[in-house]
Amino acid sequence: MYAQLVETGSKHIRSLDEMAPEERAFQQRVDEGIKIEAKDWMPEGYRKTLIRQISQHAHSEIVGQLPEGNWVTRAPSLKRKSILLAKIQDEAGHGLYLYSAAETLGVSRDELLGGLHSGKAKYSSIFNYPTLSWADMGAIGWLVDGSAIINQVPLCRCSYGPYARAMVRVCKEESFHARQGYDIMLALCNGTPQQKQMAQDALNRWWWPSLMMFGPSDAESVNSAQSAAWRIKLFSNDELRQKMVDQTVPQAQFLGLTVPDPDLKLNEETQHYEFGEIDWTEFNNILKGNGPCNRDRLRTRVKAYDDGEWFRDALVAHADKQESSKAQTQLAA
Ligand code: 3HC
C-alpha cells in the first residue's frame, strides 16, 4: 500500500529521498518488515499514532465488556453463562495486553485512562449500542468479534513489535469468541420460530454497526495513508470491510437469516458482494458521543475506576512498604 500511496502523492506522505537520514533508515527498516522495538529510534508521529491507536484499541476491549456484562445473569443455561463469562474475562486481558503495549511508548496507564474518562480518547463505535436480547450475545460474537479478527490478524504483522506480539494471543482468543457467538445464532435458528426471529432481529440491529467498525471509507480516512506508510495498517478500511461482508453473507445464508441490505448482491465477476451505502451520519454521531449508550458506557467506566481507587492505593502502599523493608535489609547488611 505504501508504494501506491507515495506514487499517488496521497496526503503528505513523504518519499524516502525527502526524509532526514535517521527517518529514512527507520522507514527502510519498516519497508523491509523489520520490527520496530520500544528502544529503537522512531519519528514522533509514529509514536503518537501508535499511542492513539493502541490505547483506543485497549479502551474498546474494556468498554466492550459492558454490553455483554448485561447478559451474564440472564444467560439461558449455566453452560452459556460460563462461556460468556470466559469471553468477558478474555476481553479484560486483551485490554491489559494493549495498555501494556501502549505503555512501552512512554505513556502511563493513568494518562491513557484519563483520555478515555475525559471523552478525549475514542473506543469502537460498536460498543455504544444496547444489547436487547440473548440473540445479541450471538450477533456480537459472530459479527463484532468476527470483524475484530479480520481487523486484528493483519496487526499481528504490523511494524511495532509490542503491538504485533500482543495481537497474536488476542487473535487466538477472538476465534473462540466468534465461534461461541455463531453457535448461539445456530441454536436460535434451529429453535422455535420465535427464537429464529430473535436471531433475525439481532442481525438487523448489528449488521450495519459492524461494518462501521472498520472505520470511515478510505476516501474519508484521515490516518490511513500515513498508517499504511508506517505499516501499522496493512490493509485499508474498505478492504477489510469487504472481507467481512464476503465472509459473513454465506454464514447468514447457512443460518437461514436475511442480511438487512436490499442492495446486497454477489458480483459474479469479482466474486465480491456489493452492498448498500453505510449511514455515515449515524457513525459520525456516535463518534461525537451521541450514540444510544455513549454516556452510559463512559459513566460506568468512570464509576468503576473511582470505586477501585482504594484498591490501587492499597497496592501502592504495599509496594512502598516492600521497597522500604528491602532498603532497610540492605542497610543492615
Ligand atoms: N469507532 C470509533 N472511532 C473510529 C472508528 C470506530 N469504529 N473507526 C474510525 N474511528 C476514528 C479513528 O480513531 C480516527 O479518529 P482519531 O484520529 O481521533 O483516533 C477517525 O475515526 C478516522 O478514522 P481512520 O480510519 O482515519 O483512523 P485509523 O487509521 O485509526 O483507523 C481503525 C481506525 C480501523 C479502528 C484503526 O484504529 C484500528 O485498526 N484500530 C485497531 C483495532 C481496533 O481498535 N478495533 C476496535 C474494536 S476492538 C474489538 O472489537 C474488541 C473485540 O474483543 C470485540
TrEMBL record:
Gene3D superfamilies membership: 1.20.1260.10
Pfam families, per database record: PaaA_PaaC
InterPro entries the UniProt entry points to: Aromatic_CoA_ox/epox, Ferritin-like, Ferritin-like_SF, PaaA, PaaA_PaaC
NCBIfam families assigned: PA_CoA_Oxy1
Protein name: 1,2-phenylacetyl-CoA epoxidase subunit PaaA
Gene that encodes it: paaA
